Each structure stands twice: as structure tokens, then as C-alpha cells.
Amino acid sequence: MSGETRDAILRPEALERLAQVADVQPALLVTDFGADDPAQRSALQHTEALFTGWGCPPLTADALSAMPRLRTVVHAAGSVKHHITQDVWDRGITVSTAATANALPVAEYTVAAILFANKHILESARVYRETKSRVNLLRAFPSIGNYRRTVGIVGASRIGRRVAELLRPFDLRLLVHDPYLDEESARALGAELTSLDALVAQSDVVTVHAPELPQTRHLFDAGRLALMRDGATLVNTARGSLIDTDALVKELVTGRLNAVLDHTEPEVLPADSPLYDLPNVLLTPHIAGSQGGELHRLADAAVDELERYAHGLPFAHAVDPRTLHQQA
């Protein structure tokens, strides 16, 4: 992992737990498997498990050749697609991820965004700020509130499922779309399975949790955005590529739709993008995922997995190479 990642996630308590189940060298940080470093080469020759995080270089055949005893990779972050290659699977190396732990803060952010969106927080705050006087809410926002609103969840991913779970206590109608989900599984989530276009057309809030795949690029194009109800809100905590940014901007500048965007394409918008200043847009800097103290949850989850491995138990959050193409 990168030095910045190590310093952020591996607090002393996590290192102590690591030392109880593994012969670990905390001072040895590998950021380049091909580095000309005798100490690193010697350590890698005897390595059975890699504890990885953001910034881990790809585990190519050349990298793996330096680790003849490697049996498992425990990733203290979400997606493993950046460093787990086909060579890893070909060697029979097992892989675990803390993606489930990383899904929790994203789901929490999403639920907050949904509840705020239905309460018209952006609009009411703007009106209050501009008038600096009592606001006639019944007149200004007759449709305000969360009671029996319809929320559409696009993607029954770890995050999408957690969002559905967190929304259960509220009086909301939940719709879900996922090409790999059946009706029984949707009902178990407390949601109705429907087509994507039907979900978009019926929802007061649409929240996106699909993976970034070739077939999901611009999943929300001009045509699909046009299906959204007037006044509806689009929440995106998934990858920015799932939404056609130009098409979304055209809708948002008219004021017809609202948006809460934690991811955009490009990830950092140009300085002249109207999305920074539109009153109907809440734009955040990729903050929904694990940040600050939440990073310690990722380390704890990864150490839990390493403890299971050390005791000969199967991983609780193993990565299945057969379904990895469906995931972020």
C-alpha cells in the first residue's frame, strides 16, 4: 500500500493485533514489487500473506515470481481490481476484501442524502438564506417530506443492499433494479424489482450503486435523465462514468432536477463547471467512502480476516473470481 494509506489506517492497535497472528514487519512498506532492495526481496521470498491497501501495485506474474510462498492477499480497502490480476487466480491464491466495511459509510451518506432530498433541504435553506424571514413552508414546499415517497435503488451491490436495509424503518416505497437480482431477493430487501426505466420514471429519489463496467457507462444518458420526475433528485455515490455529465448539466441548469454528487466524470470537474454553483446541486469531494476514523474499520476488518486465515478458517469476505466482473 502507499505510505499515506499505511499511516491513515494502521493505528497501533491494529498493528498489535497483526503481530499476534503473523510475523509482520511494520517498517517494511512495499510500494514497488520490482524495487532493488535486498531487504524487500528477502522478505517477499518468505511471504505467505500480503496485507494490502490503496496504492498497492499490480500483482503481475513478475511480481508473484518473487513470492513463491504467497498463499493469500488480504485487502484493507474495497475494490481489488487495481492489483489482483489473473495471475493471482491462476496461482490459486485466495483474496479477501474489506469492501463490506467500506460500504457502510457510503450507505450512511446515501441515506442522509435521500432523507434530506425529500425534505427539500437545499431549496428551503436557499430560500431562508435569501429572505432572512419566516418561510411559509406549506405554500413554498407543498410536497415536502419523506412519508410514502418512492426511492429507486440502482444496483443491489453491497452498498445498495445496505441502503435498503437502513431505509426499512422509514415509510418509503423502495424500488430496485439489478440484472442479477430476482423478485424473491428483492422482496427480502423490502423492495420491488422493476426495470430501470420504470424505476427512474416512478422515483422521487434515484440513488446509483451499480459497478463501473463497459455496459454501465453513461447508464444515465440524456434519454434516461429525461424520464425522471420533475423535482426528483439523483444521488450518485458510484463512479462518475455511470452518468453522462454533459446531459446531467443540461437538466440541472434548467432547475427541473436536483442532484447529490459525490462522484463525477471527470472526478475533479473543471473550475468553470456550473455544478459547483447550482443551487439545486450538492457536490462533495468523494467523501462518502471511508474517511478519517472510518478507515480504522477497514484495518480491523482486514485483521479479522487474517485471524481467520491464521486459524485455518475460510474468509468471511472472500473475493470470488467468477463474479468479480459484476462488482466494482
UniProtKB/TrEMBL annotation:
Domain D-isomer specific 2-hydroxyacid dehydrogenase catalytic stretches: 41-319
Family: Belongs to the D-isomer specific 2-hydroxyacid dehydrogenase family.
Highest taxon, organism lineage: Bacteria
Keywords annotated in UniProt: NAD, Oxidoreductase
Residues of the signal peptide: none
UniProt xrefs under PANTHER family: D-ISOMER SPECIFIC 2-HYDROXYACID DEHYDROGENASE FAMILY PROTEIN (AFU_ORTHOLOGUE AFUA_6G10090) (PTHR42789:SF1)
Domain spans labelled D-isomer specific 2-hydroxyacid dehydrogenase NAD-binding: 112-288
Name the UniProt record assigns to this protein: Hydroxyacid dehydrogenase
Annotated Pfam families: 2-Hacid_dh, 2-Hacid_dh_C
